[in-house]
């Protein structure tokens, strides 16, 4: 078959589209018209270029002329003319030269400089340099907003440019912010099509954020405006609506809209050809997802036929369409036809020298080889694809001069190629049992994980896209599976650092996903801008250090100084946000073997599909258990959770059964302290209540829970100041939860806390205490009383929400300024310095994911708290107060570390109460979470140690007196 060289009979298809029936004479006229316009435009451009040179020379000689209004108007007019003529390179050079002259001028006009930068932002947008467009746009925005009388039209235009650039860079929430600002400033003079463009952009962004209801509403408004004022532009918005439904996996709805788009006819032939080809391609995707391969293949062929008549095979878009069609053919089992297309398009793509297309071609060849079980060939093609992507470069025009080159950032195509290559190597290992293939598969998968982490870090908005987030999680799961195969084969070749870092990446991204997805990090564009600037500078510094950049005008030292200054500014203004956005995203340390002792163990859990991975580390050694997690184990966990929360259920044997499943490492070793890092539903399980050899785990092991290995804490000081809050709830009081995000929740009934005021007075008796009780325990009083408090004890209801974790909330008394609901996201900006926060009455909406509890701990950590003590369920007040009082006694008076003090308090409770009161419901719910791995060793000398020292000293004194008397 020679599809492109011999041509294709298109009569049947072209007859169905009247606009494709062009007379030859009309085509000649069109060609001559375009040719004549091209000559005139070229001549005009050359004339402008000469005038620019004269103007720049005169301005360099007399910079003061820039202060004249007429000169400024001439410069801006010239820039706009060059943009109209598509002379963007010349326009950029011209405007940057004007900026140089501005620096030489005797005095500066900030407004005129902002206008120049706005023109630069527009130029960079036309050239597709989103980062440079974004940078200039932010500078212009700062200048325009600070003017005494801002120019509304210019400000609105800048909002639109910034919205588009932010969207391209993945800063979706920021793009929505600028779109909202643009809509707020729209007046009656604004054209409806501009408003439709902004509404369309908001629909696309909400689609990527999986806000289906909002996306549908914005697309509806856009469709109505275009239908009323420009019906010929409807196919483009219809295409976007179809894409939205594809994104939400509503394929039938997508097909309905895409077919509607194919029915439209456009007065512009080129635009109709392009939109028809695009719509057909998306129709093919929708049918393929529905399993209708014949229809998918038909529409893919239609798209290809349309492009084939009006585009040369040498055109990039045509070659990409062929590659899309090849994928459809392979997925439809038409491998011979796919192979023929590959052979046809290969010479054109290789001569084109486009890295994206070339790597995509190699991936298609690799997939074809995998179809024919030619794994060696597949691996070779994957290597070629990776080499093509790794050696491609782009210019970095965001914050740096043109002479500084930045390597192409890892994109999803590179990550997918690494993943596919690792899968092929794993298959090769399965067949040949050669460890070399397994090691190569692990290396490629780990690289894919690292690149995905860097991709999500460089594009903060992408982490809120479930497709990207779960892709990253899938990569981590596959890496764990490969590493576990290696661990069973050769334990010495798997390190604890590698495993811990892999799991830490997933934990941090999970937390960041919740923060960004809820759009409530700080709601501060300035903080977001500082983070992005820090990212760009740090990336450039890394590249500069690894390359010979002697030709660059930006030196390594100057970049270092700029980065240092930016980092200090970020930390000073937004310290808590800096910890999560910068420190934990770029530095993910693993525990050093020296930080583990034989008496202390780190236990990490991680769910990967139907397997629960358990990594037990003590001393320099670690053991790895892959625990099946299927319906039987899920049912067991559910039964235990029901029992723990209901003292009437006494199925103690289930505690032993779950202990054998989750604690297999305790058969041979008995560390005194367990630091547990739970995952998923295990966040809601107090391990203290599990049974080993007929005893509760807490009777032989102190237990603390850890959120992240990336966090460290400073030295612990002796606690002195205690702040207690005990709002009063009458029996049966309902607290309305209302609407959270897009979800409605039930309205739980909170029980009376009869002993809450006694609880804070008894436990606060060990410290210098301040109390707020009843109606005085308001949210305003809490915010005003935080400074210099070592312990904050909240004897009030806390509601944990797994579905909307940042909307978990602490209930306080209402006041004139606040509703009494302190949401977790509100903690991020509070100046907390407490060593310990105690929440003694937690409730939960659900217990599926554990994200509510994780975000609760993260919220307090972001606010500056080191340790958090909370209850998994509303524990009876009398028993809870007794355990807390004993805990404070062991911690404050006897100087024990917090995990050991809580263990001592629970052991005392078990030994002093009858059998009925020993049910875990009464004591196991209270747990300790810490935000650093190395727990404190107490701030005093434990009484047992002190007694031993005194006994030894007394014995030595008696011996000394005895020998002295004998002598």
TrEMBL record:
<protein>
    <submittedName>
        <fullName>CHAT domain-containing protein</fullName>
    </submittedName>
</protein>
<feature type="transmembrane region" description="Helical">
    <location>
        <begin position="941"/>
        <end position="963"/>
    </location>
</feature>
<dbReference type="InterPro" id="IPR011990">
    <property type="entry name" value="TPR-like_helical_dom_sf"/>
</dbReference>
<dbReference type="Pfam" id="PF13181">
    <property type="entry name" value="TPR_8"/>
</dbReference>
<keyword id="KW-0812">Transmembrane</keyword>
<dbReference type="InterPro" id="IPR019734">
    <property type="entry name" value="TPR_rpt"/>
</dbReference>
<feature type="transmembrane region" description="Helical">
    <location>
        <begin position="27"/>
        <end position="45"/>
    </location>
</feature>
<dbReference type="InterPro" id="IPR024983">
    <property type="entry name" value="CHAT_dom"/>
</dbReference>
<dbReference type="Pfam" id="PF12770">
    <property type="entry name" value="CHAT"/>
</dbReference>
<feature type="domain" description="CHAT">
    <location>
        <begin position="660"/>
        <end position="928"/>
    </location>
</feature>
<keyword id="KW-1133">Transmembrane helix</keyword>
<keyword id="KW-0472">Membrane</keyword>
